[in-house]
Every structure is written in structure tokens, then in C-alpha cells.
């Protein structure tokens, strides 16, 4: 099994992370490609069938694969699980088990009771993913800052997904009123600003996966209806240029 399969999955299914991985130093790409392809597979699992049991089975498959990695046992052959085992240590595998567990709520139609509940979910998913990615490329410090930064980036991605989630019959926002969306976006921006300077240089190839978060959250704060209308997207040129700027400037 090669990393080419992981790269192709990301190119098609998570183009922002694919570009961030390709912008990373060559030596850091294998870990980022494998971990982010794993995340894509887990994020998709709850949606493959209307039958909740199918989603549960698919997520449990990944839990068991992570358990094999954590135990140092022979890991099942799979286009993502095999390269994942080559870049993940036991602690990273255990951390990702919590990410998989958090994704179980995506199987079921219930919404979030509060903004705190949504942010907790984003910490367990996007926050954990960013920390595991940073650990895998050699960062051993600043876990709280990296997790919080990932949580804020996760909120930006969540805002982008709101129209699609609504089309699937879900209630992605705890409160869909403009003032509530503006407040949520403001809290995400505050997290980005409070933690950006604490991101170690070693972690930045991983944290750049959320390079568009600031612009997305600022747009949502300025125009909350853009979240529900699906109007947060920017041009392809602006998208790529903003990543290039971060890489050249050394920004997270």
C-alpha cells in the first residue's frame, strides 16, 4: 500500500488538506497524508448509509485498526490503515480513537443543544486531528494551543458544511439566528488570535491545514447569512494564494 492512494483520496475529497500536505516539507508529507486521509475516511463513514448500524460498523472498523496500531500488532491491510500504521505511534492511535468516537454523533440526526456542545465536538474532532498531526511531524509542545487552533479551524470548516448538512436533514447549528452565528464566529476568531503565536514552528505544516479559517470566520462574523446561504467560498486564486503566503512567511 502506498501513500499515493492517500494523496488521491485527499485530492478528491479534502482539497484544502491536500494542498496543505503538498506545501509541507517532503519529509513531513507521509504523516500528514496518511493521518488526513484517515480523517476523511472516518468523516465519511457516518454518511455511507441511511442505516445507523452501517455507520457504527464502519467506525468500529477504524477503532479496531487503531487498537492494532496502539498495541503494536499486525495491522490490517488497507489503502489508508497500512500507511497510517507506519506514521502513527501508540499515543497517536489512542488519541484518534476519541476522534472516531466523537464522529458517532454524525450518524444520528439530533442537533447540538448549545454552542458549547458544538465546540466540544469540534475540539474532539478537529482539535484532536491537528494535535495528532503536529505530534506525528515532530512537535512535542503547545498541545493546548494547537488543539484550540484546530478547534477554531474546525468551526470554519463546519460553517462551510452547513448548507450541505441542512440538505441532508441535519441541524448543524445550535442557534441559526444571525446574532448567534456572529457570536460563534467571533469566538472562533478569538481562539485563532489567542493561540496563533503559540504555535511552534515544528507544528506549522500541520496547522496550515486550516489556512482559510481566519477569512471564513471573519466573513461569517461580518455576514452571518453567508453561512446558511453557502456564500462563504472564495475564488480558487485567492484560496491558493493565501496558502502560498503562509508558507513563504512561515505563518501557521
Q: How would you describe this structure to a colleague?
A:
This protein is an all-alpha fold. It has two domains: 1-90 and 100-108, no CATH class; 109-252, no CATH class. 69% of the residues lie in helices and 0% in strands. Helix 1 crosses helix 2, helix 3 (29-44) runs antiparallel to helix 7 (115-136) and helix 6 (90-103) runs antiparallel to helix 7 (115-136). The longest helix has 25 residues, at 143-167. The radius of gyration is 17 Å and the shape is globular.
Provide the structure class.
mainly alpha
- Name the shape in a single word: globular
Nearest-angstrom radius of gyration?
A: 17 Å
Low-confidence stretches: none
Number of domains: 2
Biggest sheet descriptor: none
Q: What is the terminal-to-terminal distance?
A: 31 Å
H/E order of the elements? HHHHHHHHHHHHH
- The percentage of residues in β strands lies in under 5%
Report mean pLDDT, rounded to a whole number: 94
Total strands: 0
Helix percent band:
55-70%
Number of helices, where a helix is a run of at least 4 consecutive DSSP H or I residues:
13
Amino acid at each position: 500500500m502506498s501513500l499515493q492512494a492517500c494523496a488521491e483520496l485527499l485530492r478528491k475529497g479534502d482539497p484544502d488538506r491536500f494542498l496543505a500536505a503538498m506545501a509541507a516539507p517532503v519529509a513531513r508529507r507521509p504523516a500528514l497524508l496518511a493521518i488526513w486521509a484517515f480523517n476523511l475516511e472516518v468523516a465519511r463513514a457516518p454518511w455511507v448509509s441511511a442505516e445507523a448500524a452501517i455507520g457504527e460498523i464502519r467506525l468500529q472498523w477504524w477503532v479496531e485498526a487503531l487498537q492494532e496500531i496502539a498495541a503494536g500488532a499486525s495491522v490490517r491491510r488497507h489503502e489508508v490503515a497500512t500507511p497510517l500504521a507506519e506514521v502513527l505511534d501508540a499515543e497517536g492511535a489512542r488519541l484518534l480513537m476519541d476522534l472516531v468516537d466523537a464522529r458517532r454523533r454524525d450518524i444520528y440526526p439530533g442537533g447540538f443543544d448549545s454552542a458549547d456542545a458544538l465546540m466540544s465536538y469540534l475540539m474532539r474532532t478537529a482539535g484532536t486531528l491537528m494535535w495528532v498531526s503536529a505530534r506525528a511531524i515532530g512537535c512535542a509542545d503547545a498541545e493546548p494551543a494547537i488543539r484550540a487552533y484546530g478547534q477554531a479551524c474546525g468551526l470554519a470548516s463546519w460553517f462551510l458544511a452547513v448548507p450541505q448538512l441542512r440538505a441532508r436533514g441535519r441541524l448543524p447549528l445550535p442557534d441559526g439566528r444571525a446574532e448567534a452565528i456572529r457570536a460563534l464566529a467571533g469566538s472562533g476568531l478569538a481562539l485563532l488570535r489567542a493561540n496563533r503565536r503559540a504555535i511552534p514552528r515544528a507544528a506549522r505544516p500541520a496547522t496550515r491545514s486550516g489556512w482559510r479559517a481566519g477569512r471564513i470566520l471573519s466573513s461569517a462574523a461580518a455576514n452571518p447569512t453567508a453561512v446558511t446561504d453557502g456564500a462563504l467560498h472564495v475564488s480558487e486564486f485567492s484560496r491558493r494564494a493565501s496558502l502560498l503566503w503562509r508558507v513563504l512567511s512561515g505563518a501557521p
